[in-house]
Amino acid sequence: xxxxxxxxxxxxxxxxxxAKALNNDExxxxxxxxxxxxxxxxxxxxxxxxxRGLRSRRTKTIGVILNDLQSPFYxxxxxxxxxILDHNGYTMFLAxxxxxxxxxxxxxxxxxxxxxxGLIISSVSEMSDNIDFLLKSLVKTVFIDNxxxxxxxxCVYVDHFVASSLATNYLxxxxxxxxxxxxxxxxxxxxxxxxxxxxxxLKEERLPFKEExxxxxxxxxxxxxxxxxxxxxxxxxxxxxxxxxxxxxxDVSAIGIYEASHKHRYSIPDTYSVVGYDNIFFTKYLNPALxxxxxxxxxxxxxxxxxxxxxxxxxxxxxxxxxLSPILIExxxxxxxx
Amino acid sequence: xxxxxxxxxxxxxxxxxxAKALNNDExxxxxxxxxxxxxxxxxxxxxxxxxRGLRSRRTKTIGVILNDLQSPFYxxxxxxxxxILDHNGYTMFLAxxxxxxxxxxxxxxxxxxxxxxGLIISSVSEMSDNIDFLLKSLVKTVFIDNxxxxxxxxCVYVDHFVASSLATNYLxxxxxxxxxxxxxxxxxxxxxxxxxxxxxxLKEERLPFKEExxxxxxxxxxxxxxxxxxxxxxxxxxxxxxxxxxxxxxDVSAIGIYEASHKHRYSIPDTYSVVGYDNIFFTKYLNPALxxxxxxxxxxxxxxxxxxxxxxxxxxxxxxxxxLSPILIExxxxxxxx
DNA sequence: AATCAATTGTTTAACGTTAACGAAAATTTG
DNA sequence: CAAATTTTCGTTAACGTTAAACAATTGATT
Lengths: 338, 338
Description:
Two copies of one chain form a homodimer.
Chain A: H1 4-11, H2 15-22, H3 30-42, H4 49-56, E1 61-66, H5 72-87, E2 91-96, H6 101-113, E3 118-121, H7 129-136, E4 140-144, E5 154-158, H8 160-173, E6 179-182, H9 189-204, E7 214-215, H10 221-233, E8 245-248, H11 251-263, E9 273-278, E10 291-294, H12 297-312, E11 321-324, E12 327-329
Parallel strand pairs in A: 1-2, 1-3, 3-4, 4-5, 5-11, 6-7, 6-8, 8-9, 9-10
Antiparallel strand pairs in A: 10-12
Chain A binds a DNA duplex (30 and 30 nucleotides) through helix 2 and helix 4.
């Protein structure tokens, strides 16, 4: 392994001269600097991040903790984060919290142990101890995808309340009255906002809110398939004829509905209308093309990354909360029954 | 930040006693050990990986360098890698080489600087200098997705030659004679194997190999859309009526074909038949459901991770090459024209 | 010629951990 | 009961880097 000492020996100078030369320190003669920098390149020298981080606390790494790494939704977000970080010489650690608060805590501690300078996190809960813990610790943090219940934080998220009311309003305008809400885990902040938006739209249109038409914990493909399979089979408290449309918290869930309905020979949108959420890239190629609520994922990622870097570099001042707007994308998975 | 010294002060022992206690060293009284371990948990102590790695070279991290992080194909692979690593107390660094050899080299050097114990990499080229460099360095490496031209390495990949001949044979059996090959970058090992399999199938069936029906660099959604858009518009050396079927190197490319053909009002499979590659999870929900060649992605990831861990732990002996088999998945994007 | 400042380079001490070694206390042995 | 052994804990020196303090050489100024 080629270290600074090795370069020093090779170049015939002290190791700290090499260190300064590599950091382009003006107190080293420009020629010596050039000479050493060239040598470093020739020998494929790379600073040992461990040593640097240990000494200087500047590891040039940041941690990204998300609820589901595999989901294309989060993929697009961390793709955007990665781009920004790359341009700024930073590397990212990715971790999957699997919508689990304990795992999230584990990941946070790991990241701190790894010496990250900052963290971007889609926190599982709105008022988890993890959030307090994070704010007490010294790592700069940006919360994405949802908003913890406090104002002294950096965050960027889309308004889930608006999103679900957009979806619900649209279904109502198409004549649907019994709308199943396939919601996420109950403690998930986005689930709460989502439910509220759904309720608000029903209320506005003077439709009754039927608690029994809300079902939780259906995030992810498999869970969603299983759940809808139960419903379509009649093995669930919700019966197949109790609703004519479905609002989901994610496009992936919507695909689960496609799968289950396909199995039971129900047609979408003829029997059931479906509105997804996220607008992940392939939804327009589904059969039928999915009507969904678009989230600006790339923007979320790049904004979050830039905010974090600003915060790390001490540029930019106070904490900021950025709220992005969702957009309804009309396609073919909703049928008018007016 | 809570360190080993802090714990020592708190517990009234020397810092090295704490270190040993935390590593469950038998030479420390069981009671003292328990006491210190409890304290560590209470104070949310996490070992500083930087310091540990610097001193002991055991960072418990491995690097994963892939050609396209966002593609669901690679997502599924690194998801599987992550699962295995988690169970073994390892963390992973992810990096995107974007099918670029220079960026790949950059990433390799970064990973080494980060102190990874091993590397899983989908190398861009078959005989890149990067491979020699890696083998000369001390980092254990597993190559995935394709096979460098040497035998003294660990790798796991599916046989792209078999894959493309599976696809081509199938199309021929459905009566297609003019088959466009949407291949990846020319230097990509998988592209080479893919071309060879395609040629072999044509030859077997005594069909002429038309070089002009092979087009390169069409990996990724956008490139694929642009390319097909050109072809369908007549602005390409390949004319729209020169072929009746398309074989692609990735499902994502296949989606690009869907997009372009949709724009130009061509029907799949009525005007063009398409066979994808990878079988990423949502292809069966596309319109039309995509006929594709399945790659065992999860298996690839978990095998690679296990091989790497074996190699790191010095268990297991020689280098192994694992070749997995692709499977044809018949769906609705191919039409018989016999 | 003596002084001072600028220029260029070196010495040294951290950062938090591991691990080899040393030392003290507790226990066993003859 | 002294000596030998075991048990238990403390000392110390690395790992490769950064950064502050220090030293040496040169050039400019009085």
